[in-house]
From TrEMBL, chain A:
The chain crosses the membrane at residues 7-25, 37-55, 62-81, 87-107, 114-132, 152-170, 197-217, 237-262, 274-290. The keyword Membrane applies. Its main location: membrane. This is Branched-chain amino acid ABC transporter permease. It is found in: Cell membrane. It comes from Viridibacillus soli. Keywords: Cell membrane, Membrane, Transmembrane, Transmembrane helix. It is a multi-pass membrane protein.
Automatic annotation (TrEMBL), chain B:
PROSITE patterns: ABC_TRANSPORTER_2. It comes from Viridibacillus soli. This is ABC transporter ATP-binding protein. It holds the Pfam family ABC_tran. Residues 7-255 form the ABC transporter domain.
Amino acid sequence: MKKSKVFWMYFVAAIIVYAVIQGMITGGQLDQYYSNLLILMSINVILAVSLHLVIGITGQFSIGHAGFLAVGAYISAICTMKFDLPFFAALLVGAIVASVAGLIVGIPSLRLKGDYLAIATLGFAEIIRIIFLNTDYVGGAAGMPINQLTTWTYAFFSLLLTVVVIANFTKSRHGRACVAVREDEIAADAMGINTTYYKVVAFALGSFFAGLAGGLFSHQFFLIQPTQFGFLKSFDILIYVVLGGLGSLSGAIIAAVLLTMVSMYLTDFPETRMIIYSLVLIIVMLYRPSGLMGTKEITDYFKFGKRSKGGNLDDK
Amino acid sequence: MTNNLLLKVENVGIQFGGLKAVQGLSLELFQGELIGLIGPNGAGKTTSFNMLTGVYKPTEGEITFDGKRTNNMSPHQVTKSGVSRTFQNIRLFKEQSVLDNVKVANHSLAKHSIFSSVFRLPSFFSGEAKMEEESIKFLKIFGLDKYKDELAKNLPYGMQRRLEIARALAAGPKLLLLDEPAAGMNPQETKDLMELIALIRKRFDLTILLIEHDMGLVMGICERIYVLDHGQLIADGIPEEIRNNPKVIEAYLGEEVTE
Ligand SMILES: Nc1ncnc2c1ncn2[C@@H]1O[C@H](COP(=O)(O)OP(=O)(O)OP(=O)(O)O)[C@@H](O)[C@H]1O
Ligand SMILES: [Mg+2]
């Protein structure tokens, strides 16, 4: 089958990228700084792609993504530090608990629309943060010390899983139903789509991967503190999705990669960091108001001969 | 033609705040009929459709479709039980391709799970292939297959109206509700559309309820007509009776004077 051939081509390419980088890390050509950058990039891309499913694909303006990141981070840390579970299992548990949190938040709040949903999700994320802040078991405000277990291998394969699952989900009858909800909820409902079900599914799936990113995140930085999961973190993730172009998976990925780099280079200039970061955003929004990629995918640009999916009738 | 009662609406009404948008509405639609629903602006025609499809819950009365009470069903449940519709103001999935618009309505045709889709199991490929084939069939009927990869928003207006009907048909209805399907079309497009409606009605064994402003058009194709004015049914009968009904003439004359 032709389509699955393309899929395997991408898959092999991804494995090669992984192996080359892993080789360079073991061989010492890539030092700690760069391998950390790559891991952080992977984590941010996972976050971006998981929120892309909720906002870009399903059109539910959720801005509390850091809440699910926190759930994954703390739960997986508890698994490894308090229960001595293997890292792999801890990541899985963190992601599952985050998706359950997604269900709990999603079922009541996804009935709300637009601004109300945004406020509800933001409020939820704050509640999660405050719960961890006041739980002595996980160190309260002082935080929780954690072994560094995240490696490039874990980061990469988590990223690969996230992208494959979300891309495949999007290109199926389930993903089309989600896009229909985004485009016109009333019409989707009238065409027999259970809109609430799909909103909740997208939300739970998005939360699952945010939780996965959380596990990688907490085991990368030796210490986690509730302050790392405030609303600024939620906005960081939101910015990847908006800047990349709402509805574009590759846009979200590119934006997450670029902004991780910008933000990493700017850590040496903490005073100017926020200013430059904001300037980058303003410039992009001025020149590309619908985001870097608009609603297009990077693959649309490689379909020479074929008309691109986002093309107009008259630009044949 | 069998004489099966498909839709029974008894004394249905809805109130928005103090406004009784529709009251005492009673309709009977038999299997295979093509029925018109007419009335001046603001008469409550679209509101009636919204009640029939679960968008609004009637504040009084009973709606029975195909033997089942649908009053409290949500729209997607009503659709699954066999009622689908088009909208007066086109509501396509603008950023989706023409083909995907139809596929969304074909959603329940295939059964592959989320798991199967995400990991590309065999049931995904067979299910998607079936949906594609079926959706293209509907596009062909409406002459839209050549536009299948265009975004819905890029279609010319008349084609968008057609796509909405194709999409509604793909949802597999027994009863099709069309809310002013010819609005904004030129006479030729309107004529083609009416022929098409007659054709799909035969081919899919449909029952159709049609809202239309163009009296001539409704008189020409509908077997029976219901007339609404100010939320109330003022007449029903065959076109000939409607044409000569003094209440109907008054309701429409009243409108023409104010326009
Ligand atoms: N959600 C709502 N809230 C309040 N009033 C409503 C609502 N929906 C409809 N109405 C009112 O109900 C009345 C009937 O409207 P409706 O849209 O059904 O008319 P119509 O017969 O379809 O007219 P047209 O020919 O203009 O489409 C109008 O007075 C309208 O303002
Ligand atoms: Mg109307």
